Structure formats: structure tokens, C-alpha cells
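Entry 14. Ran structure prediction on the chain below.
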Amino acid sequence: MPVYNGASGLEAALRSVLDQAFVDFEAVVVDDGSTDETPQVLRRFQKSDARIRPLLRPHQGIAAALNAGLQAARGSLIARMDDDDVCAPERFAEQVAWLAEHPDLGLVGSLVEFGGDRELHRGYALYVDWLNSLVEPAEIALNRFVESPFAHPSVVFRRSLVDRFGGYREGDFPEDYELWLRWLDGGVRMGKCRRPLLRWNDPPTRLSRTDARYRPRAFFRCKAEYLARWLRTHNPRHPEVAIWGAGRETRKRIEPLAEFGVRIQAYVEIDPKKIGQVVHGRPVLDGRQALDPEQHFVVACVGSRGAREDIRRRLRQAGFREGRHFVCAA
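Output, C-alpha cells:
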């Protein structure tokens, strides 16, 4: 558990950890140079329960704190947790059992309860709904280029993955999403327990709200390399793709793909005003009738609400199979 000036929520988070039905664990809490009451809270909890292991460090950021926690941890399984979230009492027991019962999985997450105002932060709440819709390894792997398929503090993974594929990387990208993409690219299978085991709170100070590394364009820069690698293996017409979405924002987001050798042969739209135009030398095709799975591999990059399911429906009706003829990467 990394924490930086998180004293306000830390007690509730730690109590939920200490109240676990599964008791054989250590809680390595990495204080990333906090200037509030975080160190005092940690010392108080450590005195009452020796399973709490504070690690006090100068402030270096979340990736460095996470890696310090990995280095200090002594278990063969690593459970992530954040200082502003709360675990269900059965969380560790269910996830440890799930990994024991599914030795082919390297990581298991869970469904999460959205701990925020669904009206005020509707976009984030809808993301949680989407995240909770992905549970099977195949659907998690197939949808990895849409968004991060896990709530970071909900996961438990095998320590051996860190030894094989490395830990968290520093950069202008979300450190957890890059880790999932790298491990999935390495063939790691990931699943989820079928019920909520974490309340994922949504305070205004959450990094995903305040840090540029978690903005949409940073997510696409992060996924571009791994999407290009996936396309080299799965796209029979590689390096050529058709991009569903000819709008300016979509075109800006997909620019990083070119750095990894992907060539855009066409754009696809259903907007009559755009169909038939030529954008940057590429034709805009009619998504209602001009696509052929034997001629086009489609990357659907439209992220507006409801558009992805409409695109999936249209492509399937045209004979496209997801993962074979198209992939979503909003």
C-alpha cells in the first residue's frame, strides 16, 4: 500500500485490511514522504498489530513507492491496496483461493463497488460498470485496449510475475495500466472473482483526477506500443488497418500507432457528412455497407457512450469477428 499524505482515509483502509478473514499476511505500507499525520498513524497501527510494516521513504512518486513495496514484500502473492479504499473482510481469502484453484492465472482482481457520487462523477461510475462487466480471462485480454481492465487496488498477483516481467515503470503514463499491458503481452492470464471485494472510493485528490499521466491521451500513448505488437500477431493484413472514427480527436489519439509501424489505409464512419471524404490521403468509408472482413481489419477508436456497442453490432452483422477481424481500442 503506497500512501502520500493520506492520513484522512488511512485508518479505515488499514482496519479493513486487519479485519480480513485470511490472517496470514504482512501489510507493507510505503509512506512516500508524507507531510501530514501518515507516519504517526502507521506507527500507532504497528504497535497494535505487528503485521503492519511501515516503510518510510523520501517522496519519489507512486511508481517508486510501489516498487519499494514489492522489494520489501516477503510473500509469494502480492495484494494491492490504496489508502483511500476499503476491502471486504473476505477479499484476501477469496482471491488467494481463486489463484490456488486456477493455477493458469497469474493475477486475479475482483468486481468493485463505486464509492462516489454517481450523478456528480457519472463518467467514472460508468467506467466502473464497464470494468465490472469483464471477468473472464478472454474478455479481459480482448478489451485491454479499451481501458484499464482492473481497479488497481483490487488485484492479487503472483510475485513470480515481477521476477519474470519486471515491476512498475516510471513515465508519462498510468503505471498500473502499463503493467497490465506488459504482462498480458507476455502471455499472463488474468481473471476476476465474481463479486465486489473492494469499495473503490473516488475522492477529489485521486491521482487519476489530478495527474496528467491518467488523461485519455496518455492512456493511448501507453497502449499504442502494445496494440501495435498485438496487431502484428493478430492482424492478417498487418501493417494496414482501418480506423473506425474520422474525427479530429480520434485522429490525434491514434497518431502514436504510426511510430510502431501501423499504417492506416482508411477511416470508417457512419456520419453522411464525413463518408466519401479524403482525410490525410485516406478515404472515409461507409461503416454501414462498405466493409469486408476479407479486405479490412478494423480498429474501433470511438469512445463516446454507446458508440462502441453500436460499432460492434454493425461489424458483427457484416461478418466481422472480434479479435480476428476487428478490435476495440477507444
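The two ends are 30 Å apart (CA to CA). Will compare against last week's run tomorrow.
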